[in-house]
Amino acid sequence: MKKRNVILMITILYTGLILYFMFLGFNRLDRYEDYKSYGYEFLFIPSGVPLNFPRFTFSWLYDFGNIAAFIPLGILFPLLYQVDYKKFIGWFMIVIFGLETIQSLVHLGTFDVNDVISNTIGATIGYVVYKVGFTSNLTLKKLIASSLSAIILLVCVMIVSEVLDKRVSPIQPLHAIKEITGAKPLTNDVPTFTVAGNKIEPQFNLYSNEGNTTKTYTYPIEDKEELTLFLNLGIPDHEEFKGEIAIITDGNVIFQKNEEDLKESETIEIMPLEIPLYYEAKKMTIMITGNIMLWDVGFTELKHWWE
């Protein structure tokens, strides 16, 4: 009986600590007005993976804490009530859903399904630790086995997270997308030229046009996730200051500039422009009319680490 009272006291104290961090920790009271201005936020779609490999950043420590902090609860509650996993995790998820909802309703946080997933993973790891070493008399051997099981499960979570996670790829030349239709950019022996008195030496491609016709470059992009274009543009010196560039995805113009836009900017833009395409599209077309040139056009996308 005395042993159970000790476990009960530890459980109450630890639960109180968890509640403190959920409702008062991380300067939540100081951020009350900010949370209130956002309204009631309920994020039901997972936006990331539970835990990547260690990066020793605040965000990684936060993700780690969201799992590790709930491991003790996965040990303490089964010790007190001798419940099986299904009953334990069922009640745990009901309580966590409730606490996350209250967080949002009292403007001391947001309901975030990512937190629910991480907390549930932590409680599950704790329950496994309980089954390994705490179901009978605790010995040093069982304690070591329990600790190792927790470490192994955390590593497994990291491995699965790394497999599921996608990251922004390095910038790749746009012509790396091979299945182009229409014109092809110049990629070998690319000439140098000047724009607004600045010498331009393209590194890997040049998109241009000749005369008053329109030249189009079309790429399939349906397999690209969160594609972002990077490009430089301008009209070479000593050329007629006339031209237009349009980038179209599935019939929608997402970017357009002509000579008037360049005049209004006072100086020709020679720094890379960043054009996000954060929605699904099957194809992208670059249309060039007149003397506008694009060079060093590249892109990034979300990819798994092994791609």
TrEMBL record:
- Domain VanZ-like stretches: 12-132
Q: Could you read off the lineage of the organism from its UniProt record?
A: Bacteria, Bacillati, Bacillota, Bacilli, Bacillales
- Give the UniProt keywords, A-Z: Membrane, Transmembrane, Transmembrane helix
Q: Does the keyword Lyase apply?
A: no
Residues annotated as transmembrane = 7-26, 60-81, 88-106, 143-164
Q: InterPro entries annotated for this entry?
A: VanZ-like
- The molecule here is called VanZ family protein
